[in-house]
Amino acid sequence: MVDLKSQYLAIKKEVDEAIQNVIDSSVFIQGKTVREFEIQLQEYLQIPYVISCGNGTDALQMALMALGLQPGDEVITTPFTFIATAEVISLLHLTPVFVDVDPKTFNIDPALIEEKITTKTKAIIPVHLFGQAANMQEIQRIANQHSLFIIEDACQSLGTQYIDQQGNTIQTGTIGDIGVTSFFPTKNLGCFGDGGAIFTKNKELAERCRMIANHGSVKKYHYELIGVNSRLDAIQAAILGVKLKYLDDYIKARENAAALYDLLLQDDPGVIIPQRVDYSTHTFHQYTLTVMDGQRDRLKEKLAMNGIPSMIYYPKPLHLQKPFAHLGHTLGSLPVSEKLSEQVLSLPMHTELTPEQQTFIVEKIQEE
Predict the structure, then answer these.
(1) Domain check: are 189 and 251 in the same one?
(2) Does the pLDDT at position 301 exceed 90?
(3) Is 283 helix (H, G, I), strand (E, B) or coil?
(4) Does residue 105 lie in a domain region?
(5) 240 and 263 fall within a common domain
(6) In a shared domain, residues 266 and 119
C-alpha cells in the first residue's frame, strides 16, 4: 500500500543528518528542534499557532479538552472514519452523535447535521476523509447559527486546500476553531513513529492546548489545569522538518498517480472512481474505489492472488461497533455509511508509485 523505504532513500542524507544533529544535541524532548518544526508548519499552513504532540488521537482529545466541554455534552461527527475521532469523545464522557455521509465524497453530509442538533450539542468534528475536504462552508454556517465549535480532523488531509466562494484557498485544519493532524508514517506528512499536531488561530486556545500537552503546566512543577503527557519527540520533529520541505512534491506525486488511475479506470462499469468537488483539492491519502454489484470482496481477493495489496477503509461503520452500542443504533439507521462499508476498496497509493505498477494493478482489476 505504501513504499516508505524508497521515499526515505530519496532524502536519506538530509534525514540522517537531521537525526544525528538531535543525537549530538542530546535534547530529545521539546527543545529547539521541535519548536523549529512547529514554526515551519505554521508558515506552511499560514496559521499563527501550531502545538505538536504525541499522535493524532491525542491531538483530538486535547482539542476537546481545551474547549472546556462538560460530561454529557454532545459532539456531532461521522461514523465513516477511524475510531479515534469518536473514541476521544467517549473518553471525555461526552456523547458522540453520528451523522451519515455523502455517498460521493464519503465526508459528513451537512444536510443531515441540523436535525441532530439538540440543546446539548456543543461541537462538530468533520473529518476530511481520504484527502478531500468536507463542505466547510455549510458546516461553518450551521456552527455559527447554533453557536457550536468546529474541530477539524485533518489527519488524512494535511496539504489539502479548501476553496471558498471567493476562490481563496485555505489549508484544511485552519478553518474551524481548532484543527488536528497525525504524523503516522503513512500520512501525507509522516514521521518514523507516532506524532501529531494541533492548529488554531486563537491565542487562548493555543495556550490551553500547550498546557494540556505538558501535564497542564506552563512553568515546571506549577500546574494550571489537568492535562496529559503528549509531546512530539525531537528526532521525529527533525525528520518531519526535512519531509515538510517535500510535502508539496509528495502531494503532486499522489495527484499524478490518482489521475492515471482515473484514466485507466474511467470506463470500467464495475467501479466508481473517487469523486471530486469544486470546493477542495484532493491529496489522495487514499485512492478509494466504490465497487459495484457486490463484487468488492471478490475483487480484493483477486488482487491479493496477484500480489497486489488493497485495504477496506472502513469495513464496519462506527455506529454499529460494540463500543457505541449504548447509543442505540441499529442496521439501517445510517444507510449510506453502511452501504459504503460493503463497497469501498482502497488501491495502493503513495509517492513512489510508478505508472508500470498502476497499469499492472488495473489490468488485474479488469481481468476476467
Answers:
(1) no
(2) yes
(3) coil
(4) no
(5) no
(6) no
